[in-house]
Design brief:
Elements lengths: L1 H10 L12 H13 L4 E7 L2 H17 L6 H5 L5 H10 L11 E7 L4 H12 L12
Parallel strand pairs: 1-2
Helix pairs in contact: 1-2
């Protein structure tokens, strides 16, 4: 991932990396590479009750199996998550520790709230001004 990340960071000013980052060492390595290219690092930790996460995974798989022709390639590859993988990631999760992960901003967002609330929280942390108002976005 490091060579790809370096080339990507040189090409633009903002990037989002969607990954589980279960291990602290993965977060640190990614942050180190990003900082070397002048980027600020924000680790957004999404919090979701176990039962809700499993229900979402089941719904995603049901949509894939019921109507695979309606899914775009990107959407169908977005996650191959299943309950076994989710449980394994939860078991191996290394919590964020600010004193052991210097240079990384960290924010926790609860994903059971409205999507608009979650987005506003992250935008506030990033200090990004908004010119529009979210309305009933779920």
């Amino acid at each position: 991932m490091k060579p790809y990340l370096g080339r990507t960071l040189e090409a633009a000013t903002y990037h989002r990396i969607d990954a589980s980052f279960v291990h602290r060492s993965d977060r640190l390595a990614t942050a180190e590479e990003a900082v070397a290219h002048g980027a600020e690092v924000l680790f957004v930790e999404c919090l979701c009750p176990w039962e809700v996460a499993l229900e979402r995974l089941a719904q995603r798989w049901k949509r894939r199996l019921d109507k695979p022709e309606r899914l775009s390639t990107e959407a169908s590859l977005a996650s191959d998550g299943c309950s076994d993988l989710y449980d394994a990631q939860c078991a191996g999760w290394e919590a964020f520790l600010a004193d052991e992960e210097p240079g990384i901003q960290h924010v926790e967002v609860v994903t059971t709230q409205l999507l608009s609330v979650t987005i506003e929280h992250v935008l506030d942390v990033l200090r990004i001004p908004r010119f529009a108002w979210w309305h009933s976005m779920t």
